[in-house]
Give the backbone structure.
Amino acid sequence: MPRILIVDDESGIRSLLSRVLGKRYETREAANGREALNTVGSWPPDIIICDLKMPEMSGLEVLRALQEQKQESLVIVLTAHGTVETAVEAMKLGAFDYLRKPFDVEEVLVVVEKALSVRDLKEEVRTLRKQVQKRNRLDQIIGHSPLMLRAFDLIEQVAPTRSTVLIIGESGTGKELIARALHVHSPRAEKRFVAVNCAAISEELLESELFGHEKGSFTGAISSKVGKFELAHGGTLFLDEISEMSPRLQAKLLRVLQEGEIDKVGGSSPIPVDVRILASTNRNLREEIKNGSFREDLFYRLNVVTITFPPLRERKEDIPLLAEHFCRIYEEENGHPIQKIPEETLRILMRYNWPGNVRELENTIERASILCRNGVLTPDCLPEEILNPVSRPGLEVHVGMSLEEAERTLILETLKACGANRSKAVDLLGISIRTLRNKLTEYRETGVEVP
């Protein structure tokens, strides 16, 4: 429910407005400017109805104080006959509108409704602006290190082509960012970019997600479904963590690459699709081919062009630039401007090895931007694990321990060391998120406590 704060030194006017507006809105009263400012601090209103002429602190002074505090409440001022000039001055200070005393109750309701409509519109514009900024920043791959400059050159060369691209890099390095950049700079930019995380969906659901299904094709298929291939027709389909795809689905994907058509689950005839496929992995696919979990023919179809995206620890010279970039993003989103990142803070950021890569750095800067004071991102804004990275004790693995026990110990201790962060753990262990999930389920079923 919208909040309205009524500020007037005359109790009769406060009571009248509270009675009229209280039927539709949540209202509070303040007898003077000081009380109003204190209320705003603990109970931010959507609208403030404020008398201009009050003892001690005038309505104009209240407006100036609200401006200094960067309050976003819309202010409607009350003015007596003969003080319209003061009301105009209030409008210059940011007041939304003014009402003359004695006012008509219906007029008050109309002005309040108008103010709330403007508030809703501003909120909608703010939301849209954030969405646009987020979309725009997807194409802002930041870095000036030699490794990054080589990656930029390759992206520029490959983007305009129809070639499939395999993007290799650890979790959190920004593989989807590269995929989006390839799409945005391609002739398909006006069409859809569709991303699918192959590691996050079970094999049965992934088949339906990618290829779609017909009504009644399996239990629970109460209606037909359009798959991601059809949704991406004319555009780009990004298959994230493709190494987690089962061999059976790999065969179906290979057919799409060879024939340019898909077979829906339960469908009777193939459907032609025009889709550029980009894929990513954090695994060594040549090793996966050797152990039989990835098809060699599919690998060569996907690996027309490879873009290897380096982990952040291998391009630490980019950290100051990235930190500055994320500061600009989150000062806008959180309303906390950051004027400076001291050298001491940058030294700490560059000393840390960033197992979670750019994603971890972004999360760190977002947190720090909320905690920092006076516009300076000091070291005390950083989390303890970055300020004081410590080495972990060795694992207790001994002769006579079974391979299964050793594996369980390694997985659980790695998970603890990563603060139960599954993505970090799979990177360190060199396994897939699905494998980790299956192992943890297995451990829970035997009564083992899982972090």
